[in-house]
Amino acid sequence: MIKRADIVTWIVLVTAFLATRLANLGLIPIFTDESIYLRWSQIMAFDASLRFLPLTDGKPPLFMWLTSGVMRLLPQMDALLTGRLVSVAAGLGSVIGIFFASYILFKNRKISYLAALFYLLSPFTFFYDRFGLADSLLAMFGIWTLGLAVLLVRTIRLDVAMILGLTVGFGLLTKTPALFFFFLLPLSLLVGKWHWKLIPLFAVVVVFAQAVFSILRLFPLFNMIDQKNHEFILTFPEFFRNPLQYFWGNLHSLVPWEISYLTIPVALLTLLAFKKYFRPSLLLATLFLGHLIYMAVFNKVIYPRFLLTFTPYLLILAAVGLSFFSQRKLVLVAFLVFLYPAFTIFKLTTDPISAPLLQADRDQYLDGWAAGYGVTEVRAYLSKESKLHDKITIGTEGTFGLMPFALEIYKKDYPNVDIKPYWPLPEKIPAGLDYFIVYQRSAPPAGWPLELISKYRQGKGESSLQLYKVL
Fold first, then answer.
1. Are 349 and 254 part of one and the same domain?
2. How far is CA 404 from CA 40, 136, 369, in A?
């Protein structure tokens, strides 16, 4: 039975979630990956024949499908915000999902509410719930997969198996690491009892998941997904030639990244969970550590955001650990545990450049050439100049990524501006250009007849976006 206290608590949780996730949502500028996904979404929104466009780069399209839907529903909204709103919505789904999963596991509302609070105040989830990336959406499906898998082994119901299969399938349509969700089926037996009926139900899960994922086979470039994966993941022949070639280097990065985003107090709380709830805690820890070790062994390329999918499992463990404190101590411990994460969230909301972020994330989103500081100013400049001239031609360094996509997304603001991308840059400047943007290198090629108009530093880094007038 739903009590009034539950309703009030949920109102507070949802309000706090929306307040934190929506505040200054566009403060961090668009960066390279976002510009790609948003440009794809924009094209897909108004051309049904290109709904599988992300597959040309080996990316499953669900996140872009959702973003294109928001673009159709809210055509006047800033394109950057449409993609980020999808991640905000996914984050809200994760808050509900982490409550559901933790309640199914522990049958304890206190733990469930604490788990939702940990998700709300985690700098890791906060950071990625506010970017137009697929990672927050994948994490949501991972949380719901956990809850549904445990529910399946405890109830042995066909409808749960069908819903679980659809959830895993949607995860596969988001990012291929969702394949790891299938390991939840046997591992969930740690908190349930074996029954022969689970064999056909597990088969139902696999069939439904594959049926959803097979939608992508309608597009002839389905094989590009596998090719893209091999850019990031070792093939088995590569693995057997040198099984540990990436292991120690990856582990040396992944573990400090995770502890940094969790914070040490939260990491310590996860260990307390084994005090009373050993088997559920073992399930959660095994899922996280299994994925961590897999990434350490097989990943050729790693980013902190790859850890996001299974981090909510650790947040549930931390909630269990915190729940052991008496009511008097709970408030004090919670205050100490959440103080630094809350400070980080405040800085990310108001002044992200000075926020205490991992250097690996700073390099990608704030300080490196992939960041987008200066894009808004260049767009404003082009919009102003386009009203003074019949036609303007601007060249960009790069043919895929921040440039030219971050300009093409807002082409309606300067319809008479022709955008011409170049990569690599030639020795002599191409003819017919009025302006040129350089952002991946420190300066344009020597000898190009250019006059610097403006230069925008990327965060605290050495990279900059430079706008030049062609003489």
1. yes
2. 13, 26, 14
Query: Are 409 and 301 in the same domain?
Result: no
Residue 368 lies in a domain: no
- Residue pair 35/439 in contact by the 8 Å Cβ criterion: no
User: Does residue 370 form part of some domain?
Assistant: no
Domain count, the chain: 2
What is the spatial distance between Cα 14 and Cα 117, in angstroms, rounded to a whole number? 10
How do strand 392-397 and strand 464-470 relate by DSSP bridges?
Answer: unpaired
Indicate the burial class of 349 (C-beta count within 10 angstroms; 0-12, 13-18, 19 or more).
buried
444 is a domain residue: yes
Helix (H) or strand (E) holding 430: none
Distances (CA, A) of 73 to 18, 21, 76, 121, 137: 20, 21, 9, 30, 20
Rounded CA separation 115/98 (Å): 6
**CA 171 vs CA 165, 306, 371, 455: distances in Å:** 10, 14, 27, 41
Candidates 315, 332, 335; CA nearest to 114 is 315
DSSP 354-401: GS---HHHHIIIIISTTS-TTHHHHHHHHHHHHTTSS-EEEEEE-SSS
Pairing between β-strand 417-422 and β-strand 464-470 as defined by DSSP bridges: unpaired
Question: 278 and 416: one domain?
Answer: no
DSSP 233: B
> Do residues 89 and 178 both lie within one domain?
yes
Per residue in 36-89, pLDDT (tens digit) is 999 999 999 988 889 999 999 999 999 999 999 999 999 999 999 999 999 999
Question: What's the pTM?
Answer: 0.95
Most distant CA pair in the chain, distance:
77
Residue 246 CA to residue 297 CA, distance in Å, equals 6
328 and 466: one domain? no
pLDDT tens digits for range 111-128: 999 999 999 999 999 999
234 domain-assigned = yes
Whole-angstrom Cα distance, residue 134 to residue 310? 14
Check if the beta carbon of residue 292 is closer than 8 Å to that of residue 256. no
Tokens of 446: 């020597």
Phi–psi pair at 357, nearest 5 degrees: -110, 155
Q: What is the DSSP string of 26-72?
A: TSSPP-HHHHHHHHHHHHHHT-GGGTTGGGGGT---HHHHHHHHHHH
Tokens of 303: 């980013």
Pick the closest to residue 202 from 166, 162, 154 (CA basis): 162
